[in-house]
Amino acid sequence: MKTKVAFMNSHEGWGGGEKWHFEAACYFYSIGYDVTFICRHGSVLHKKLLDKEIFCQFIKVTNLSFLNPYKLFLLNSLLKKASVLLVNSPADNKLAGVSTLFN
């Protein structure tokens, strides 16, 4: 059974954190991990991931997303399938943290 790793980076632009997440996801995928990437639809990361075979789930995250029941449920269902979650921004971390309370 493959280890399932999820990456979460909902930032629209491109910077050091996005580059690291992209390269790490590609590396884990290349050595046989089952990788899921949670990102913003249309973001630079999304466009770069189109060339890879990495599964993407799209969530638009804001500072108040942790109050959105739909986003909490969606992220919670994704995280139940993953062994590890790597998060980038404070808003992503807040949403991911609150979503784990509903297991």
How would you describe this protein?
Helix 3 (69-79) crosses helix 4 (90-99). It is built from four helices and four strands; from the N terminus they run E-H-E-H-E-H-E-H. The mean pLDDT is 91. It has a single domain (4-102), classed as Nucleotide-binding domain of ferredoxin-NADP reductase (FNR) module (Rossmann fold, 3-Layer(aba) Sandwich). It has 103 residues and is an alpha/beta fold. Strands 3-2-1-4 form a four-stranded parallel sheet, sandwiched between helices.
Descriptive keywords:
alpha/beta; 103 residues; 4 helices; Rossmann fold; 4-stranded parallel beta sheet; globular
Summarize the structure in short.
The protein has 103 residues and is an alpha/beta fold.
Q: What order do the helices and strands follow?
A: EHEHEHEH
Radius of gyration: 13 Å
Number of helices: 4
**Which second-level CATH architecture applies?**
3-Layer(aba) Sandwich
Distance between the termini: 23 Å
Task: Assign an overall shape.
Answer: globular
Question: Could you tell me the number of beta strands?
Answer: 4
- Write down the CATH class: Alpha Beta
